[in-house]
Amino acid sequence: MSTPDPDEARIRVDVRRGSPSEEDLAAVVAVVTEAYAREAADAVIDDPPVRPGWERAARGLRRPLDRQSGWRSALR
Question: How far, CA to CA in Å, does 29 sit from each of 6, 26, 32, 47, 68?
């Protein structure tokens, strides 16, 4: 067995009832650690899509004129 890395987080297990063996505790720690690792991997959010420069510059442009409505609709 290797010596624990001091930089790694220590795991504390408090047994409230019963008397589990070392193997039982190791199995519980392994299952919980794997479940946590999967949850942490799935919880990563994707980066937002990057808009090209021309699209960002075009956002302030006016919409095209509605030539079907006629010039009087613009006065309302």
Answer: 18, 5, 5, 32, 71
Residues belonging to the chain = 76
> Taking Cα atoms as reference points, which of 11, 33, 29, 32 lies closest to residue 21?
29
- Tell me which residue of 14, 2, 10 sits closest to 33, measured CA to CA: 10
pLDDT in tens, 38-71: 998 888 888 888 877 777 776 666 777 777 776 6
Q: pTM, whole model, 2 decimals?
A: 0.43
Q: Tokens 């790694």 appear where?
A: 8
What are the DSSP calls for the chain, one per residue? -PPPPTTSPP------SS---HHHHHHHHHHHHHHHHHHHHHTPPPPPPPPPHHHHHHTTSPPPP-TTS-SGGGG-
